[in-house]
Write a structure and sequence with these properties.
Length: 183
């Protein structure tokens, strides 16, 4: 004799599994960390913008003016987000953050972060075309693509289009690296 489903089992997650039981308030820390990361990003933007503005001036026609405005906006947004998350937290947002935390594939996230750091470190040495092609193919592999030939072709075409668009159309020189003599 079978027992009908009472509907008390946890709902299925986006990947077919069931969600783990979410502790109340489990998303608070993640939301606060996000606010702090926004503030740290704002600090970097402001630091670089002020460094550029010291050489060129602080007027609206100067190169550091718009980044300073963006940095100030990020500081305001980050502080407001941190205050709101601390003083009057949004319960629905906390529950969603906790649910997303349980569904996040953290290993993939850390692989992508390490790949971005490696990309930034190798960009000048290898050059934009080579570094971006390797980065694109690597991230496609991490994301599940196993069509390496297709990924390499797309990566080379995409990297070349961006490289020549920036250097020829916009006049912004991207690192040539190992291909500097050819480009």
């Amino acid at each position: 004799m079978s027992v009908p489903d009472s509907g008390s089992s946890p709902p299925a997650g986006p990947h077919g599994g069931s969600h783990a039981v979410i502790r109340p308030g489990a998303g608070k820390l993640g939301i606060r960390i996000t606010a702090v990361v926004i503030l740290l990003g704002a600090a970097v933007v402001l630091f670089d913008a002020i460094r550029v503005s010291i050489d060129g001036g602080f007027g609206p026609q100067q190169p550091g003016f718009f980044p300073i405005i963006v940095g100030i906006g990020l500081v305001c947004f980050g502080l407001a987000f941190l205050v709101r998350a601390t003083l009057k937290p949004d319960r629905a947002l906390e529950e969603q953050a906790a649910a997303e935390h349980t569904d996040t594939h953290w290993r993939t996230l850390w692989i992508v972060i390490v790949a971005l750091v490696a990309y930034a470190a190798l960009l000048n040495t290898l050059g934009y075309l080579i570094a971006t092609t390797i980065f694109f193919v690597g991230i496609a592999w991490v994301a599940g693509s196993r069509k390496v030939v297709r990924d390499v072709i797309i990566a080379v075409l995409f990297s070349a289009a961006i490289y020549f668009g920036f250097t020829e159309l916009l006049g912004v020189r991207l690192p040539g690296g190992l291909l500097e003599s050819v480009l």
